[in-house]
Amino acid sequence: MMSRIIPTYELGAWTTTEFKDDQEFQEYIYDIFKEPGKYEFDETAYLFNAEAKRFNEEGLYCSAPFRSKDFMAYWDDQKNKCRQGVIYNNNGRSWFLTRDYYMWLNFLPIFDKEEKKYGFAKVRDAQYHMALYELLAELNNQHSAILKKRQIASSYFHMGKLINTYWFEEGATLKIGASLKDYINDKGSWKFLDEYKTFLNEHTAWYRPSNPEKVLLWQQQIEVKIGNRKTSRGLKSKIQGASFEKNATTGVGGPCSYFFHEEAGIAPKMMQTYEYLRPAMSSGMVTTGMFIAAGSVGDLEQCNPLKDMILNPVANDIYAVETNLMDADGTTAMAGLFIPEQWSMPPYIDAYGNSEIEEALVAIDLERSRWKNELGAEQFQLRISQKPKNIAEAFAYRKASVFPQGILAKQLKKIEEKEYPYELIELEKEQDGIVAKRTRKLPISEFPVNKKQTDKTGSIVVWERPAAKRPAFGAYYASIDPVSEGKTTTSDSLCSIYVYKNATEVTRTIASGEVEQFIEKDKIVAAWCGRFDDINKTHEKLELIIEWYNAWTIVENNISLFIQHMIARKKQKYLVPKQQILFLKDLGSNRTVYQEYGWKNTGTLFKSHLISYAIEFIREAIDEELDDEGNVMSQTLGVERIPDPMLIKEMLAYYPGLNVDRLVTFGALIAFAKIQQSNRGYTKRRESDSQSLVNSEKISKLKYTSAFKNIGRKKSSMGGRTGRTGFKNIK
Fold first, then answer.
1. What is the extent of the structural domain holding 304?
2. In a designed cystine with 499, which of 308, 526, 670, 715 is the match (CB 3.0 to 4.6 A)?
3. What confidence tens digit (pLDDT) does each residue in 163-202 have?
4. C-alpha closest to that of 562 among 585, 535, 544, 590
5. Is 377 a domain residue?
6. CA 330, CA 381: separation in Å to the nearest integer?
């Protein structure tokens, strides 16, 4: 690797800093890369844009006579800084301005929305941070994805990045693209390129003619005549533009140094573009160019490619940074670059360009309080998504959620705080029956699932094992959303199954001869979500789960392969016939479906009907604690019967059209179970204190703790007044 010699300012004088190779330089950038609010710009920042200030004051950059020694020295020095970047050192702190950021601040004027006039960009730590992020991506031979707030001058900056290379490097091919032509033509980003070219040719010594010079195609060259022969002179670098309204791969062929995807948050075909373009940005295993996707979130259905790049950076070869801005809880994870509203938010920026984060957050919260009182729910959510404090807000559903967000968020927190212990198991069929074995394989814990994830098999999550070696048929129900194929690299659809334990009315005779009665509440006790490359293995896993719990099972029959599997094995007794799925009769649905088993998920069945059962299950008050006067002091809601964090996350994220395998499975299960319960009543069980003691002794020998210790029992003395004490200590 060649050494880097970087112009350096320290103690009032210019010198240089030499890095022996890219590795040493990279370590330096790692060391200074922080985040807005922590860069600690001081008075040194006044020098970052010193050339722009000189131009503003004097109307020119260099007063030395044209082509004089001083004139040439000045422009050679500035050209070097625009190609190498600049280091500023002061009082033990160091800042590096990337080549594109230095040039942008000093030689590429923009329309300043704060000043409402054309001028040069002000020093801002958010833009400085973005420039460093892209440099690190390049040094790591990776690509860049930036989810940003609005009004961060991203288009101006990135057109400056392209101009920098176009102006100073030989033979580079630079491309911009967008989902709509108006984003990149002379009404969009190309207008900024044209403004930059005009300014540089008029006010600097770096004159660069272009031929051709038309919208969406420039090449840096000029035609000259030598004798009778015409030839072209220049750096030969090109800038091209293409829109992907009709075809995601228009204009992506050929080598590429930088590709900037404009308005990446409104780009439903961007992932296709990216995948087609990547070969043009590599040579074997060596990355030769960089894809840059930057944008704010537009329509949710159009932002999925950017969302995938931000949330799954490693799988997409995107440079990832650690952030604690995943959600409102401060969850930390690796992601593409996120630029939230509180970074570089006027007027909460100090004199040096540092973000005043805490002050900005207070102002944002006050503004949101006002919005909440003044706006409808949908408009309120949309406002927040355009000025997000965290990544979750940017991608959140903009309409009023059908699910109770507060209740779900509280339950998710309980789960994440380990209030619901669980086992990860695999089931095997042996001579004596089905055996459960612990596994280190993890369940799928990503929503939406990464399409490129190679192992999508996951593990079975068990919150409560079957109550007996062979439970009574009907004590458990199961619900399955099957898949149509095995191995796939293009689908994020998974097979899912939930096992549900029915509510049981228990009558117990205690030692004194008194009889007490209580209800063991219904709950989700097991789940699996995944798929195998071999569809038969997927079916076998479902079969084992059903048999283990002896569960009566409803299956979505849009795909009938699993039903056929069970019939072939003469195990259709586990399948609920269509006639027994009473929510279909209630709606007059599935009359034209000739499949004997299961239910068909029509276009409206889930979102218009089944989902209401899921919501009711969540909101149901399953316990109340009363004071002496009969007033409710606290309530236990049905959501506490849901121990699966992934199901909760699907509910939180849900909007019509979103792929929610778990939620569909759950909604159908609860609808089926509740209607069965209302028609047939509770499953009943009688026991005595001696039986209970034996059972408790058996349970005490197990290392596994029930996930539902927090959900209790409602007791009543037979013939006496029904009490309303808490459901406690399910054992």
1. 4-361
2. 526
3. 999 999 999 999 999 999 999 999 999 999 999 999 999 9
4. 535
5. no
6. 20
